[in-house]
Design brief:
The complex is a heterodimer.
Chain A (H helix, E strand, L loop, with lengths): L2 E4 L12 E3 L5 H11 L18 E5 L2 E2 L11 E6 L5
Parallel strand pairs in A: 1-5
Antiparallel strand pairs in A: 1-2, 3-4, 3-5
Chain B lengths: L1 E7 L2 E7 L5 E7 L4 E7 L6 E7 L3 E7 L7 E2 L15 E7 L6 E6 L2 E5 L7 E2 L1 H4 L15 E8 L2 E10 L2 E5 L7 E2 L22 E6 L7 E5 L2 E5 L7 E2 L10 E7 L7 E6 L14 E4 L7 E3 L17 E3 L7 E4 L5 E4 L7 E4 L5 E6 L1
Antiparallel strand pairs in B: 1-2, 1-28, 2-3, 4-5, 5-6, 6-7, 8-9, 9-10, 10-11, 12-13, 13-14, 14-15, 16-17, 17-18, 18-19, 20-21, 21-22, 22-23, 24-25, 25-26, 26-27
Classes of the chains: A alpha+beta, B mainly beta.
């Protein structure tokens, strides 16, 4: 199963877990599975339209990726707060 | 003991103190996050905070103890097909019905809760009004910021939208009508006013004991309605105000003839006029306005007081409190006759409500 690696500021909404094993073959599906497992995360990584929050970045295999990127069963997707804001 | 809920750009600050005395910081929570609005439902004692995380978006939380654990509400969030996402939570307002609350957001929309604020649903009829395609936002975005329930009648509600005017319902939100009669959008060329949708309401409140009376701070203009919002009367021109531009507004809950505004110099210069901080009071429904400045900075004080950063309590004499972008909170325990600095050096103040 892919693993979602969560940045510190949203771990509290995933039961304090830094990493969550999820299903899905794309990043979008993996996030949906993450929300299913931890409903308190709904609306945090993607908004209610399913769009990635503007200041959130997703990294996979060392590169920034979109929600449509494919993700393998043993791979990790990092959810990172962009270096923006103030 | 008075409690003040101060929404700031860096967290929620809870101040507690004796009226007219010193206040202490009882709690600071949501550290580092933007708390756009915080309030307490006096019926249940439950606290609400609209919090926008810098990266992870806006969310609504509730708690029974503001220094304790906050729970995340289910919503407000647009349903599938609405084609929108909540950008900012502007207001949470207890409704007339038991366990009923309303929430205003950007993009301009109204949400409704019937379970004490735990879960929220979009008021679809207002979202679907045909005029929406013409709506535009002001500097603060297209937002629904003022919610005025009718005491003891859940069917009647008035909301204020920047910049789309006043909207009224008499059937609990199933149908809506715009009500801008009497409002003059002087910020538009005269020939463009007749057919405009751009009515920039800045703030609107209903008089507690006389629900047909509402007051409004407009984008250039102060108005009163004597007919539940059906029409509006200019009470800002040549009546003693240094400017008719501003955002904050409060009404004495025990006297519908008495209201307060905090004018700013102009739309192009959103600071207290002349470097003097003054609250202006009317005791005659806006026929005349008088400055209340005793104890407020009167030299080189160019403060910005935002839309939701002014509140009153329900005591006698009336308590009044406002916060500034410069991080100060001022208070009066005698209806504005004298003021003191309640807090200073806070992060920029976005909202202020009595707990």
């Amino acid at each position: 199963m892919p693993r979602m690696i969560l940045t510190g500021s949203i771990r509290q909404h995933a039961g304090g877990h830094a990493a969550v094993a999820v299903g899905g073959e794309t990043v979008r599906a993996a996030i949906a599975a993450l929300e299913e497992a931890h409903p308190a995360l709904r609306g945090w990584v993607v908004d209610e339209r399913g769009a990635l929050r503007r200041h959130v970045k997703l990294f996979h295999r060392g590169a920034s990726v979109s929600l449509d990127a494919a993700v393998g069963p043993e791979e990790e997707v990092h959810v990172v707060a962009a270096i923006s804001g103030g | 003991m008075t409690e003040l809920l101060v929404g700031t750009r860096k967290g929620l600050v809870v101040l507690r103190g004796r009226r007219g005395g010193t206040f202490e910081m009882a709690a600071r929570t949501f550290a580092g996050e933007v708390v756009e609005f915080a309030t307490r439902d006096p019926r249940t004692g439950r606290y609400f905070a609209g919090v926008t995380h810098g990266q992870f978006g806006p969310h609504l939380f509730y708690a029974d103890d503001p220094a304790g654990k906050w729970e995340q509400a289910e919503g407000p969030a647009f349903p599938p097909g609405a084609g929108a996402a909540v950008e900012r939570i502007w207001a949470v307002q207890p409704g007339a019905g038991e366990d009923e609350l309303w929430c205003g957001v950007a993009p301009a929309a109204l949400f409704h809760s019937l379970d004490g604020g735990r879960s929220w649903s979009l008021v679809r009829a207002l979202w679907d009004v045909p005029e929406r395609v013409h709506w535009e936002g002001g500097a603060g975005g297209l937002c629904l910021h003022s919610i005025c329930p009718w005491p003891a009648d859940p069917n009647r509600l008035a909301v204020g939208i920047s910049s789309a005017g006043v909207w009224l319902t008499d059937d609990g939100g199933k149908s809506w009508r715009r009500s801008v009669k009497g409002l003059v959008p002087r910020y538009l060329p005269e020939e463009a006013r007749k057919d405009t949708h751009a009515y920039c309401v800045h703030n609107m409140h209903r008089a507690a004991g006389q629900p047909t009376t509402l007051y409004m701070q407009f984008h250039g203009g102060v108005y009163r309605s004597d007919d539940a919002g059906a029409s509006w009367i200019d009470i800002g021109t040549d009546r003693g105000l240094p400017s008719d531009f501003g955002f904050p507004l409060a009404i004495d809950p025990s006297d519908p003839d008495r209201a307060f505004v905090i004018p700013l110099a102009a739309d192009a210069d959103r600071v207290t006029p002349g470097g003097r901080v003054c609250v202006y009071e009317t005791r005659d429904r806006g026929a005349t306005w008088n400055a209340l400045a005793n104890g407020l900075p009167q030299t080189q004080a160019y403060l910005t007081v935002l839309r939701q950063a002014f509140c009153r309590d329900s005591d006698t004499p009336l308590g009044l409190y406002f916060g500034a972008q410069s991080g100060e909170v001022f208070g009066s325990a005698d209806g504005g006759a004298s003021w003191s600095t309640v807090a200073a050096r806070l992060p920029p103040v976005l909202s202020l409500r009595c707990g």
